[in-house]
Amino acid sequence: MNVPLFSPLQVRSLLLKNRLVMSPMQQYLSPDGLVGAWHLVHLGSRAVGGVGLVITEATAVSPEGRNTLFDTGLWNEAQVEAWKPIIQFVQAQGAKIAVQLWHAGGKGSHAHPTAGFHYLPPTDGGWVTKSASAVSLDKQHTAEALTMTEIATLVADFAQAATRAVHAGFDAIELHAGHGYLLHQFYSALANHRSDAYGGSFENRIRLLLEVVDAIRAVIPEAMPLLVRLSAVDFSDEEHAWHLADSVRLVAVLQQHGVDVVTASAGVFSAPDRAKLVPSYQVPYAEKIKADTGILTGAVGLITTPEQANELIATGQADLIMLARELLRDPYFPLRAATVLHADTPVPTPYTRAFPSSGR
């Protein structure tokens, strides 16, 4: 049966078997930036469960790019080697895998969530955080503004991490440019108060993101997809907040620089009104960006049922469904969705007895 949610999608040379994607979710289990057995099971079980694409948790491009001391990294070769068996296992299940690269900027240097997630000063094992401007993003400390030299180093860090991602065997790269982290700190005037080439005008505030995109495109294969996760809106009524029209304008530029897919999330300098947290509440961002630019988009935001996810693809509101908490609750959501929607999808041979409609 032809079911839109289970239709394949070609992105450059990458063929995804369906439209279901495991969204990045921090695990806080990576001392020294190293992944291990937990990540093999965490990511691997969703690949066994049938997603077309697995995206790793946000992975720092430098030690100072982390949010906590327990975030994954790709700033050295030991981390590359740790990723390889996980990548190979995910791919062996018929899924593709992308690494999400990030820098937390002024939201970095925090204790583990179980220890209170408070700011760690350098004297307690943390570091001096850097942002677009000298602002406080966690209400606990004030970051320092990046110098021009530090910005150049930062761009190089992203390029080197992307090179390591290729060597590790990842199928694609996603840039985390949302949720109040460093790249978002530059393009949103809520955090960017600079008056140099990286501040002020729209063109200046998006400059760092474009430089990072260009640096990554220069070191990865032409056939490798590049994705970007944006905060499509700032959830703020302030005059200088980032709005959906800004995102549409930005995405049109990102396309020209070789970005293939945009995931339209939102926040997190501020949070939405809880009354507005309804199923698919962020989908209109993806729909608008897709309609106005033609780029492939990923939809997020309280997508929890097979029927809901399939409708979003069938009606063209988005091209990919990014699942986070629902995949924590049910790693086998895709296999269950295929049963509910009467779709043919591959099932791992040891699991076929539980999915009699798999066609085996």
Automatic annotation (TrEMBL):
Entry keywords, A to Z: Flavoprotein, FMN, NADP, Oxidoreductase
Domain NADH:flavin oxidoreductase/NADH oxidase N-terminal: 5-339
GO molecular function annotation: FMN binding; NADP binding; NADPH dehydrogenase activity
Cofactor requirement: FMN
SUPFAM superfamilies in the record: FMN-linked oxidoreductases
InterPro entries per the UniProt record, alphabetical: Aldolase_TIM (IPR013785), OxRdtase_FMN_N (IPR001155), YqjM-like (IPR044152)
Keyword rRNA processing among UniProt keywords: no
Protein name: NADH:flavin oxidoreductase/NADH oxidase
Organism: Hymenobacter setariae
